[in-house]
């Protein structure tokens, strides 16, 4: 587990605990029958089990980095779009809103970022509004937070009268990006996606291998956990192709896996993710020209027309 005194970025512990109080996911069930129903092992090791350690990657900020504006998009929460339902019957729009506030508080506490959360719980917000808000605010990166659902869905009952979906077969994070649009912007998206996946893996989080993504996303050849959008034209992800600044979508975890859902309510996991986010942004934001030149040697994405 992470000691806040050792967090390289000086992330705000008290703010993280306050954010946790808004998350409604409980930890893994203590009842033996419930644990057997979820097939939770007695002696777990490695992410996403409780004994797996997470760490805070160290960010290296250029001398001229200053304070950068980062737009945090809590996924879903759009009209008629609440997202998935987790193994603890928590709607995705509620998880992402809590996670976005926790991340914003930690990023702001570093003094290196001004993070803006793109919606509140008061009303649904269209994705077009969010992209326009980020552009007006002159954000330098657009980070959309989500949770994923994968594989064959089974059900279990965490409490009398409640039935929730679950699946333990596909844990891990995924970082999604789009290669549609102007080549330099696409190169910066790819660099940001790779930096996120690299830093999240460094933090101890596990990249998803992508078995359920075939035909929808294509895995990156250089970095595990990175996938480019390959939905049919007209069905591709809006927040990946329309923001005017580099944008990525983070599938933080598999929401049907009780181990991951529980870990993502822990302060240590939120601290590690915030440190990974800060490090990924320090690696890429403000370095657009250098990134484009680095990726230009045969590794740059082919530009695709917007749809």
Automatic annotation (TrEMBL):
GO cellular component, one term: outer membrane-bounded periplasmic space
Catalytic activity: Hydrolyzes the link between N-acetylmuramoyl residues and L-amino acid residues in certain cell-wall glycopeptides
InterPro entries recorded: MurNAc-LAA_cat (IPR002508), N-acetylmuramoyl_amidase_3 (IPR050695), TAT_signal (IPR006311)
Alphabetized GO MF terms: N-acetylmuramoyl-L-alanine amidase activity
Organism: Sorangium cellulosum (Polyangium cellulosum)
EC code(s) of this entry: 3.5.1.28
Gene Ontology BP terms: peptidoglycan catabolic process
SUPFAM superfamilies reported for this sequence: Zn-dependent exopeptidases
Domain MurNAc-LAA: 131-282
Name this polypeptide is given: N-acetylmuramoyl-L-alanine amidase
UniProt keyword terms in alphabetical order: Hydrolase
Superkingdom to which the source organism belongs: Bacteria
């Amino acid at each position: 587990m992470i000691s806040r005194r050792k967090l390289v970025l000086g992330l705000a512990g008290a703010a993280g605990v306050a954010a946790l109080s808004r998350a409604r996911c409980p930890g893994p069930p203590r009842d033996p029958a419930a644990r057997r129903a979820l097939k939770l092992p007695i002696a777990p090791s490695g992410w996403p089990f409780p004994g797996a350690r997470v760490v805070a990657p160290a960010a290296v900020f250029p001398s001229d980095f200053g304070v950068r504006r980062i737009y945090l998009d809590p996924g879903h929460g759009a009209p008629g779009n609440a997202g998935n339902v987790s193994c603890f019957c928590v709607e995705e729009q509620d998880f992402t809103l809590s996670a976005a506030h926790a991340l914003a508080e930690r990023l702001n506490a570093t003094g290196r970022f001004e993070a803006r959360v793109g919606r509140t719980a008061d009303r649904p917000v269209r994705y077009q509004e969010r992209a326009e808000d980020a552009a007006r605010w002159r954000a330098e990166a657009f980070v959309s937070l989500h949770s994923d659902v994968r594989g064959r869905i089974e059900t279990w009952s965490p409490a009398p009268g409640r039935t929730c979906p679950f699946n333990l077969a596909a844990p891990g994070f995924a970082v999604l990006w789009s290669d549609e649009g102007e080549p330099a912007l696409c190169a910066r998206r790819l660099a940001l996606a790779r930096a996120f996946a690299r830093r999240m893996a460094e933090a101890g989080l596990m990249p998803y291998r992508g078995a359920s993504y075939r035909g929808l996303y294509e895995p990156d050849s250089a970095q595990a956990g990175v996938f480019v959008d390959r939905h049919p034209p007209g069905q591709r992800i809006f927040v990946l192709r329309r923001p005017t600044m580099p944008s990525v979508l983070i599938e933080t975890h598999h929401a049907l896996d009780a181990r991951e859902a529980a870990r993502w309510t822990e302060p240590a996991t939120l601290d590690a993710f915030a440190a990974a986010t800060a490090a990924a942004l320090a690696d890429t934001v403000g370095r657009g020209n250098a990134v484009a030149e680095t990726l230009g040697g045969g590794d740059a994405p082919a530009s695709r027309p917007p749809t």
